[in-house]
Design goal:
This protein is mainly alpha-helical. It has 17 helices and five strands.
Length: about 400
């Protein structure tokens, strides 16, 4: 019965890691619908206004028949352009629906697997591992490698290639000291960034202002500040005051905070702020999913003795025993050093537990057996972890309550 319980698959716990799999398509679908609605509403207002004006001018005799026909042709062309845009939005929506369907099917397959020992669970886990690898490559900027892996494993619909490629492109443009692509992104997502009270666009405009001041273009800097920075004085008052004070200090100043404002490290700050804003906007985790899964797995396997000075680890020269614990291996020992170990609700103990004078607990039968194999004289026992030797009379029985 215990074995069946331990191998029973709990899909809900597995899906905690896969929430972004469905959140992102939902966000993209909402964004696509709002963009389409904005285009329709804008063109509707323009067309109705143009149609009304043309009709009134024709009735009043202010326009000839040919001029009225030209106005109608212009409206028809505008409607054709709107149709082409709607076809693009429709195609994007179909792509989102296809990806959502594939992701739902992938998650539903987990509910069809009864046990962790089932071979289908291994197959499902390999697909998820490939997804995590693609996610890690995309976040690290290896877009081509990620695309090649996704294509090879046929999981293109289960990963978000385009979103991360666009994010990396804008991030790199900021590291290259250019604000144009990021400002275009802000303009496209202005409604959503305002709802989240993001300061990204303000920081970009502030950086443009700093660059104008750096080049000595004081008049242009003042005009830029009046247009883009001063309107935010009520919400970001301290930064606006600092921006005003920047006019009085040259780029080589040693006075803070103006020295920091002139520093090239602000570009790194902007790139990180963009990535943070981008991920929050699309409900993406701030860390790679691979890191989250690896941290959870290492913590689940880690025990208090894994980094003990007596633990059997390749990193501990004083180790006196051998072990098959993965956390004590060379590859994972240092990686898991700063992670916490989980608190297990269930534990397994020997049926005859005994405590040694050093406080360590072992089963009496196994302790005596190991001491005998170690060649100790009768009446002596050896701690298999610390190699300390004690008299058998010193060990005491443990009663678990």
């Amino acid at each position: 019965m215990a074995e069946v319980t331990s191998t029973k698959l709990n899909p809900e716990s597995h899906l905690l890691l896969d929430q972004p799999l469905l959140r992102l398509p939902a966000e993209l679908s909402r964004k696509n619908f709002k963009s389409a609605a904005l285009h329709v509403e804008h063109d509707r207002k323009v067309l109705l206004g143009t149609l009304k004006a043309t009709a009134n001018d024709s009735l009043a005799g202010r326009k000839s028949a040919s001029e009225s026909l030209d106005s109608l042709d212009t409206m028809i062309n505008r409607m054709r352009n709107l149709k082409r845009k709607m076809e693009g939005f429709h195609e994007e929506e179909r792509t989102i629906h296809r990806q959502t369907r594939a992701r739902l099917e992938h998650l539903h397959n987990l509910y069809r697997i009864p046990s962790l020992a089932d071979v289908k669970y291994d197959e499902w886990s390999r697909v998820r591992l490939n997804r995590l690898l693609v996610d890690y490559l995309l976040r690290s900027g290896y877009g081509e490698s990620a695309a090649a892996l996704a294509k090879e494993k046929r999981i293109e619909d289960l990963v978000d290639l385009d979103i991360f490629v666009q994010c990396h492109r804008v991030e790199e443009s900021l590291r290259g000291k250019s604000t144009h692509e990021c400002l275009a992104w802000c303009s496209e997502h202005r409604e959503l960034t305002r709802k989240t009270h993001s300061t990204l666009e303000f920081e970009l405009r502030l950086q443009q202002y700093i660059e104008l001041r750096r080049r000595g273009q004081l008049a242009e800097a003042r005009h830029h500040a009046q247009r883009y920075i001063t309107p935010d004085s009520e919400t970001i008052n301290p930064e606006v005051h600092r921006a005003a004070g920047l006019l009085a200090y040259p780029p080589e100043t040693k006075v803070e905070p103006y020295k920091t404002m002139y520093s090239s490290s602000r570009w790194d700050f902007l790139s990180k702020l963009f990535v943070k804003t981008h991920h929050e906007l699309f409900s993406l985790p701030g860390r790679p999913l691979m890191h989250i899964a690896l941290s959870a797995g290492l913590s689940a396997l880690k025990t208090p003795s894994c980094h003990s000075k007596y633990a059997s680890s390749s990193s501990n020269a004083s180790s006196t025993t051998t072990t098959v614990c993965p956390i004590c291996s060379t590859e994972l020992n240092e990686l898991a050093r700063n992670l916490r170990h989980v608190q297990h609700n269930k534990s397994s103990v020997e049926h005859d537990p005994m405590v040694l004078p050093n406080g360590r607990v072992y089963g009496r039968e196994r302790l005596l057996e190991m001491s005998s194999k170690a060649g100790l004289e009768e009446g002596k026992v050896k701690d298999p972890t610390t190699s300390e030797v004690f008299d058998a009379s010193q060990i005491r029985k443990v009663f678990i309550s």
